[in-house]
Amino acid sequence: MTLPTAFFGHGSPLNTLAANRYSTAWSAYAATLPVPRAILAISAHWYVPGTRVGAAPRPPTIHDFNANFPPALFDFTYPARGDAELADRVAELLDPIEVERDATSWGLDHGAYCILAHLFPQAQIPVVELSIDRTKPASFHYDLASLLAPLRDEGVFIMSSGNVVHNLELADRTANREPYDWARRFDDVVLRLLAERDHAALVNYHRLGPDARLAVPTPDHYLPLLYTLGVQRSGEQVSTIVDGFDFRAGSMLSVSFAA
Q1: How far apart are CA 190 and CA 188, in angstroms?
Q2: C-alpha distances out from residue 166 to 9, 105, 128, 228, Å
Q3: Domain count, the chain
Q4: Residue 90, SS3?
Q5: For 134, which DSSP code?
Q6: For FRET with 138, which of 36, 194, 212, 225 sits at 20 to 30 Å CA-CA?
């Protein structure tokens, strides 16, 4: 069986504990999934030089956000096991790309557990996180992801997490305000290109005009989408898990690919 693959717009770390329409949609999506033997997570927040794969037997929960968040969020842990066999398999598939097995410097960051807390709240599935090499162009990440596609036939759920639109500088935390026009337009363009399977345009997102420059001022939160695209199979259709905006400048678009 080929498992689905998905990209999630994770938004604020507060979504880890929230009961809202995003977390409800993520939970509902999980109910449709076959139970995976393991999860490979690609998060916007492990954005470092080089390609690294988590190798800790018990990946620590990393509270990678500032002290202004509530104590309950710092108390949260996601106690999933690691999976050394999966880490080795990732390195094997990516050869000759050099892959560092990282058992000490990282674990599960909020880009991963914000979603996992609602997909698999019992933390019963082993999780391995894969870094995003910040020194490489978008095309590298798309091509690297394609090498991981066999994992989908090996019981591994490949999930990536970021935000298609992510401009913290222009975020407006005033309640109940509509997204910026440019944010909405870019989100709509991405949805259209996903439906059209125009991977080249999505990889070369910087060519999509001024809206793209505002929506993706830095690549870290956009690049996870390319990992999901890279493992998409011919004939698979995209479905929207949930869409919406936080703070006018953060897209919560989450999508899945399956036959």
Answers
A1: 5
A2: 10, 26, 25, 18
A3: 1
A4: helix
A5: T
A6: 36
* Preceding amide of 96 cis, omega within 30: yes
Residue 157: closest CA among 181, 124, 189: 124
- Buried b / exposed e along 98-109 (16+ C-beta atoms within 10 A): ebeebbeebbbb
| Residues forming beta bridges with residue 52, ordered by sequence position | 100
Percent with pLDDT over 90 in the chain = 96
How much helix, strand and coil, in percent to the nearest 5, is found in the chain?
A: 35, 20, 40
For residue 208, the tally of other CB atoms under 10 A from its CB is 18
Q: Residue 114: which of 54, 63, 170, 179 has the closest Cα?
A: 63
Tokens representing 197 are 């399977």
> CB of 8 within 8 A of CB of 160?
yes
Output the six-digit token pair for 190: 């991405």
Structural domain of residue 185, as residue ranges? Answer: 5-258
Q: What is the average pLDDT across 198-212?
A: 97
Residue 61 to residue 215: CA distance in whole angstroms: 29
Query: 221 to each of 107, 202, 255, how far by Cα in Å?
Result: 18, 14, 15
Strand partners, 159: 6, 41
Distance of CA 148 to the CA centre of its chain: 15
Residues 170, 249 contacting (CB under 8 angstroms): yes
Q: Taking the complete model, does pTM exceed 0.90, yes or no?
A: yes
DSSP designation for 68: T
Alpha-carbon 49 to chain mean position: 18
CATH at 81: 3.40.830.10
| Mean of pLDDT values over 186-210 | 98
Please provide the average confidence, as pLDDT, over all residues in the chain. 97
